[in-house]
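INTERNAL TRANSFER SHEET
From: sequence group
To: structure group
Subject: Importin-13

Please process the attached sequence and return the structure record in the designated field. Keep the field labels unchanged so the import script can parse them.
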Amino acid sequence: METPGRIAVSPHALDFTVENVEKALHQLYYDPDIENKNLAQKWLMQAQVSPQAWQFCWALLSPEKVPEIQYFGANALHTKISRYWSDIPSDQYESLKTQLFSQIACFSSGSKMVLTRLCVALASLALNTMPEAWPGAVAEMVRVFQEEGGGVDGRARCLALLELLTVLPEEFQTSRLPQYRKGQVRGALGCEWGSVCPLLQQLLQRTDSPGAVKARVLRCLSSWVLLDVPLNESESLLHECFSALRDPELFDTAVEAIVNALSQPDSQRYVNTLLKLVPQVLGLQDQLREAVQNGDMETCHGICRITVALGENQTRTLLEQVDHWQSFLALVNMIMFCTGIPGHYPVNETVSSLTLTFWYTLQDEIMSFQVEKRTVYLQVYRPVYFQLVDVLLHKAQFPADQEYASWSSDEKEQFRIYRVDISDTLMYVYEMLGAELLSNLYDKLGRLLTNVEQPASWQHTEALLYGFQSIAETLDVNYSDVIPGLIGLITRISVNNVHLADTVMFTIGALAEWLADHPVMLGNILPLVLHALGNPDLSISSVSTLKKICRECKSDLPPYANNIVAVSQEVLIKQIHKTSQCMWLMQALGFLLSALPVEDILRNLHSLITPYIQQLEKLTNETPNPSNKLAIIHILGLLSNLFTTLDISKQDDDSADSSAPPVKTAPLPPGPNPVVVVLQQVFALIQNLLSKWLNDSQVVEAVCAIFEKSVKTLTHDFAPMVSQLSEMLGQMYSTIPQVSALDLTRQMLHIFSIEPEHFPPIKALFELVTSVTLSIFQQGPRDHPDIVDSFMQLQAQALKRKPDLFLSDSLDVKAVYHCGLLSLKFPEAPTVKSTCFFFTELLAHCSDVPPLARVVQEDGKLLIQAVLEGIGGGAPRSLMDQFAEVLFSLNKHCFALLGVWLKEALQPPGFPSARVTTEQKNNFSQQILRERVNKSRVKEIVKEFTLLCRGLHGTEYAAEY
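Return from structure group:
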């Protein structure tokens, strides 16, 4: 049972003695076997919450123990006080407090980590007892530690007191006190600030205070201001913080304290204090410039955080102080300096990104004023925002090629994200500056590209184009008169760098909607895009741009279609692009072909698809192996992506202008949809392929995806294939049941089950799939939670869409119902969710589908039992809303029987949990039966009851619920 030096941690060996705790800790820290470590960890967690913890925690704190053991003792104390406060009798509060004070005094010169845990434990005790049982807690802490004695030197006592005062507000922020107590305790702590503030001030102003003490004072202030200490009451301390910024040792903690104080939501009430702080912040400009010159990024970062904290949190307050507009403008310019700080983010500087939110905030506040007031502010701030655009585009520039090549992949990724943030900011700024911003950018780009004396660097050109792209990508620039000129400039750019080429592509993509309104420009632009398509380095930008153009401009592309298809075919055959870009390219071709006459679609499809079909035939005849599997999945993916967007039914919708008079368009030609023609041609090949690969779920999934995408896109146009696809699906599923076949069956059922001519094949498929899945249930469904999940979704869809399916004699409704009961007990949350949805739909059709009514009348009690079992603790708490839906549905559709079933199901003692009393069960039952209209109330009742069943009601875990 037990080896020497090792703790036996079976559930029966819960002998939580000091000796065993020490053994377990030794095992946790030093045993090389990970399994033993995990066992020790588990056992120690149980020990920590056990009643014996009160005995061993004090013993573990004795001076001769090592710090790891002492730490566990202190942590156990904190756990007992913070989580199990209600277990402590009130007559023991005083002795517990005294012991903790005494231990903190002992450890003030000992291990820092143990001292901190003891301080946190005392803080937790204070929060649980103030203000009633321990009024003036903070004043008493200050008094106790300022008294001489205990042989502990004054500095150690002072540091211990500061540690205690620092962790007190932190413990309050993380404590799970009930809401009403939170308010009381916050108020009590607010009153205690009067005891803390003079102490901190005195320690900061004393010239003989050691650096370590001052740093701890600043940390303590930082912690307290987060409790919304009124800004005017910490004003003098903040001035001391500004002085401390000159001391490199105190700089970081001083920054933290100032930023926390300025960021408090309440701080804007103290206008006079804020106005005194503005010059203090402006006074940091010399220190900031000095830091920039010396390359001291930490100091730059800290001063920038302070400047932004004041500007961002107090924007409106400071804007409204019209007599002080110049000092606020100076603050805005100081933030502009931080935005444009020299160097490339994130390699030479990390400051500029901190300022971007400020520019949003300032703009929001200015634009929210009434018109007259806004006009005045815009006169002052529009020039500032034009300057901001220049600064941001400068910051967005790539470094020299050689420098960029030396960056790590992580730095490159951070720079990419930073440029996205700049792009978002520019898009926002456009709302303030409007069309003038585009003209401004256009003029700059024009000057840059036409200056023959001084050729522009690609970085400069790219940044200006990036500005255009940022705005055009998300905002409607169709009315802008500079876009035609911009298109003209784009064709003049000599693209000699991959980043510039990428941005050219993305800019064209962003203008796709504009090109749809100005198709005459397509002739200039398409050659650029088709040329880029052959460059693997421009894969993402060129393919996504072509896709956007094919989607937005498809009705104007027929003259260019042959060229686009030819170039696309060439790059696909040469395998220039990665798989996902090949799929996008196929989607682009689907959009393009959708706008062509049917005979042209078929001709293009033939030339596009034939090489792949031939390859697929060849692969089908080979012996299955991993490499030809990948090739098969790739080809099937290309086909399904092509069929996703090839939709001739949308030919007329897209060009229709709701404001224009209706135009008579030629009706769609009779005969099958081109996609159906192709699918019918390759159907035999696909069947042959499946016969070889039926065991491989990925290949089956890829085959099903072709049909699923086609069904979704074509909907009723897919009709000619319903019968043969239903038959193939039935054969596939009967041989080897797979989820993708079930999902496709659900899709088919959704669209075609309500059409009389297609009902017979869909009905046959549904019955076959149901029968096969029922046999899986008989053999043991636990190994197939995904099939069970999908099967339940299929049954729910059938009930919702075509409940007549359940009238069939060939369908064993009772067996399906019992499968649902089993599925409710699965550990996988998605499966239980789908099953609850199935029962909710089933109960709704009790009245109009007799077989369903019969099975519910016979076995409704079993459903109630399964639901109660889940609520009682058998299912994760995240599923309670779904169980509540089933109860609500039962109440709505089977009210008379529900009362009887609930009474019978809840009668056995200990069900659904040993933790609930008969009275609580009766109360739950009555509450449920009362609620036939308010579903959200039923959800609340179920949540309350599940907490009672799990013994969590009123605990910290319930607070997370």
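Handover comment: The radius of gyration is 36 Å. DSSP finds 47 helices and no strands in the chain.
Transfer complete.
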